[in-house]
Amino acid sequence: MSRELKFFQAINEAIDLCMARDQSVYMMGLGVPDPKGIFGSTLGLQQKYGDTRVMDMPLSENCMTGVAIGSSLVGMRPIMAHQRIEFALLAMDQIVNQAANWHYMFGGRMSVPLVIRLIIGRGWGQGPQHSQSLQAWFAHVPGLKVVMPTTPYDAKGLLISSIEDNNPVIFIEHRWLYNITGQVPEKMYRVPLGSARVVREGTDMTIAATSYMTLEALQAAEMLAADGVKAEVIDIRTLKPLDSALILESVRKTGHLLVADTGWKTGGFSAEIVAQLAEEGFSDLKSPPRRVGLPDCPTPTTRALANHYYPRAIHIAATARRMLGFNADGPALDVTTSVLLDVPDMSFTGPF
Amino acid sequence: MDTFNLPKETYRSLFEMMLRIRMVEEKIAELYPEQEMRCPVHLCIGQEAIAAGVCANLSRNDYVLSGHRSHGHYLSKGGNLKAMMAELYGKVTGCSKGKGGSMHLVDLSVGFAATPIVGSTIPIAVGTAFGSVMLNEQRVTVVFFGDAAVEEGVFHESINFAILKKLPVVFVCENNLYAVYSPLSVRQPEGKEIFELAKGHSVESYQGDGNDVIQVYKLAEQAIGKARQGNGPTFLEFKTYRWREHCGPYYDNDLGYRTESEFQKWKQRCPIERLKERLLGDRVLCNQDIKRMVSNLEVEIEDAVAFAKESPFPEGQFLLEDIYAP
Q: In sequence order, what are the residues at sequence separation of 6 or more whose Cβ sits closer than 8 angstroms to the Cβ of residue B153?
């Protein structure tokens, strides 16, 4: 019988197994060894591996990314963690100019095996600087790999693959996934980077989703089933390298593509998927591809506005219905502030 | 001057390295107008003493990181000249297989790499030092940067972490007074000395004459020795002057951002001429030795240029190779 773990425990176990196996793996980040342990994902690691291999750090994100890069050039395998993706923006010089380029610009003679864990989110008033979904920025840059796991199983398997990869990997975790539970084998196992997964099979409509939006897409697929629509849901899992083949293959079967992304639509990763599909699979389409993502505005804090900002399963289902020529309206999309949409579940009571 | 208390061979090799850098840079300046080296070049003519004097204290196993003006550092650390020239010509035999150019020189066999974003290699150098310590290796890292790099926040972040962890890294600031065309006076307050900044971070710090290779050598010897013994980082500021334009093969005193007299004053303090006079005067070298050096270097440099020119360009399919490490 397989064991169940929460997402944060699966992350923790992946790091633990990699550190036990390989002395060159080490972990740094502000608060990594603190009592909260990056939402539990690093708890207990310092006690096990000591304060050299599991270290807190100065609030010098740019420098410390450079330190991680430098150490990776001489034989270490660093894992950095930032509690919010926004903190890594202070390190974009090191991530984009340096880490992403070293292998290519030195003719393949250098490599930067580095994992940077970044946390995105939604709700609970995280607002404009504590929850942005900036995956498209990183996926835009050649030389980086970008991973967004949804399930605890994939979180562990993809993180192990990322730590063992010889390239800089941006590993993006959604705050609302931390408490979800799933089956996770105890052993060391790998989920390969660059492979998407069909999480629900269907024949009428393809919904490709990133990270937390995969869960919303699965709910939407349930709603659509009530209308007799069999939606296929694909968890993209790695944005870079992207498993375009799996998405194309699914659309060849269903003829309809809807992309549900945690990020903004404008210049977003959902645009990239639709563009690739338009270029490579246009003749398979029976309706224009559509996207469900964030509107082109900064992230509001108050739940009164955030409820209108973040799309949910009902929005995905309504979009799908329109694509299939159903009565567009379906269930009411109205939201009121009395509906608690700003938490993943009722166990979440803040403060962050 | 307490100059002449090093082994004769040290003086000779310091002199020869400075001469080698000068002659390589002058050859690049001479050939650049042919329009075959199609990448930006930042020549270090006038600043050779710092590269030569610092790196003479390093072994092959030590690491050096540098910035955009890195030819002298690459050569002083023992980087392969042919591979460097081929890189400038964009050839597949170049040290970065043509994908880097003058601003992205690398020679793994001697622990050298350079990239041109100002200040950006400073934390990476702190990282190689940190990695060396974690791997329990006795290596020292030296990072070269200019006076403008201390205006970058990452310099302060890096020196803070280096002293926090007492890392074996030596920060070498080549203060040549200008960032492109912008003088220090528009970038840093009057009367502030750059090396004092490091003291504010509790890092031992010295200022020296960057056109006096013996002074550079001795300060670096002390700092590198200290790092090797596990006693932490040191900051060294050397004042110097770039003779040619910021980027490219020509002189640019006609532009008016600096004066001809300032340039002439610094040219009088040519690090190579100064050492030459001292060594000839003390009979450490004779004119015949120098002639022999020059002609040997001419041959070496001509060979490297010929190698670069004759080498093939990378094939088109190489464009999409080495994006990811296997």
A: A62
Average pLDDT over residues A250-257: 98
For chain A, where do the domains classified as CATH 3.40.50.920 start and end? 197-323
Closest to A223 measured CA to CA, from A151, A103, A320, A135 = A320
B298 close to B24: Cβ distance less than 8 angstroms: no
3-class DSSP assignment, residue B146: strand
Q: Report which DSSP code applies to B100.
A: S
CA distances A275 to A147, A244, A272, A281, Å, are 20, 11, 5, 10
- Which pair of tokens denotes residue B288? 């015949």
For residue B73, the domain's CATH number is: 3.40.50.970
Q: Write the burial class of residue A240 (CB in 10 Å: 0-12 exposed, 13-18 middle, 19+ buried).
A: buried
Closest to B223 measured CA to CA, from B161, B169, B174: B169
**ipTM, interface predicted TM-score of the complex:** 0.96
> What pTM does this model have?
0.96
Cα–Cα distance measured from residue A94 to residue A99, given in angstroms and rounded to the nearest whole number: 6
What pLDDT shows up at residue A334? 52
Looking up tokens 């200019």, which residue turns up?
Answer: B146
Single-letter amino acid, residue A8: F
What total number of domains does chain B contain?
Answer: 1
pLDDT at A333: 53
pLDDT at residue number A340: 75
For A8, the token pair is 């944060």
B1 domain residue, yes or no:
no
Q: What average pLDDT score do residues A52-68 get? A: 97
User: In the numeric block, which tokens belong to residue B109?
Assistant: 């066999």
Least CB–CB distance from B123: residue in A26, A62, A104:
A62
Nearest CB to A109; choose among B106, B117, B127: B106
The tokens describing A236, both together, are 């993209």
- Is residue B155 situated within a structural domain? yes
Contact A107 B95 (CB under 8 A): yes
Q: Would you state the pLDDT for residue B1?
A: 45
Q: Which fold has domain A4-183?
A: Rossmann fold (3.40.50)
| CATH number assigned to the domain covering A197-323 | 3.40.50.920
Which of A173, A170, A152, A122 has its CA nearest to residue A352? A122
Could you give the CA distance from residue B5 to residue B11 in angstroms, rounded to a whole number? 10
A57: tokens are: 């750090």
Distance (Å) from the alpha carbon of A70 to chain B's nearest alpha carbon? 4
| pLDDT for A343 | 86
Average pLDDT over chain A reads 94
* DSSP-assigned letter for residue B322: S
Return the pLDDT at A197: 98
Which residues of A are marked as active site? 61, 130
| Chain B residues bordering chain A (beta-carbon distance below 8 Å) | 63, 65, 94-100, 104, 106, 108, 113, 115, 117, 120-132, 134-135, 137, 153-154, 157-158, 160-161, 164, 321-326
**Mean pLDDT confidence for A76-102:** 97
Residues of chain B with pLDDT under 70: 1-4
Q: What pLDDT score was predicted for residue A329?
A: 58
Instruction: Return the percent helix, strand and coil in chain B, to nearest 5.
Output: 50, 10, 40
The answer to whether B263 and B269 have CB atoms below 8 angstroms apart is: no
Q: What is the DSSP string of A60-114?
A: -HHHHHHHHHHHHHTT-EEEEEESSGGGGGGGHIIIIIIITTHHHHTTTS----E
- Tokens 């670069």, residue located: B308
Q: How confident is the model at residue A339 (pLDDT cuts 50, 70, 90)?
A: low
Domain(s) labelled CATH 3.40.50.970 in chain A stretch across: 4-183
**pLDDT above 50 for A260:** yes
